[in-house]
Amino acid sequence: MSLTIQLQTMLSMLAMGAWIGASLDTYGKLTYQPRSFRWTVAIRDLLFWCVQALLVFYVLYQANLGELRGYIFVALLCGYAAYRALLQSVYTYLLDRLIMLVVSIVRFIRKSVYYILINPVKWLLKLTLSLCMIVLTLVWKICLVISSIIWKPLWWLFRPLFQSLSKSKIYGKMVPYFRKLKEKSQSVWKKNDKR
């Protein structure tokens, strides 16, 4: 292995050490880590470290065709330590600001969708329901007026018949049914008048 390839490998491993430090900070900020043990957290952590290992090996393969030497691990550790000492505070500050920006953009989009799409649809549904109730009430009132217009002439027409029936024995048996019918019709009229 030539000196140029060794230097290239050292620099790339230093960069990968810094990358691992930044990835750890990002992973810690973006994921919830409960204090108690959970299998989902363990599997997620294992997948994170598998991805990091694959990235390191890919960069190492690009630098020196995947040849492992002892100084590679030292370079990774030095890169991680350099990140912790020099770049961590700046990176976490920028990461916090980026997360706050993304959260505010998502909130803005949610509010915009609510006020532009959902709120007008709700208002239209309420308006449609109110109009339907008005139409149904109007139709009911018209039906009541029409039935009273039809009922009164029929009452005057069949009144002599009812009076003659009232003197018969059949009427005495039917009086309770007529009273119930009259009470029900009066209660319906009262409810409609209140509306």
UniProtKB/TrEMBL annotation:
- Positions the record marks as coiled coil are none
**Pfam families linked:** Spore_YabQ
Question: Which superkingdom does the taxonomy of this entry point to?
Answer: Bacteria
Keywords in UniProt for this one?
Membrane, Transmembrane, Transmembrane helix
Keyword check for Transmembrane helix: yes
Family matches, as InterPro entries:
YabQ
Segments crossing the lipid bilayer: 41-61, 68-86, 98-117, 129-151
Name-wise, this protein is: Spore cortex biosynthesis protein YabQ
Could you tell me which species this protein originates from? Alkalicoccobacillus porphyridii
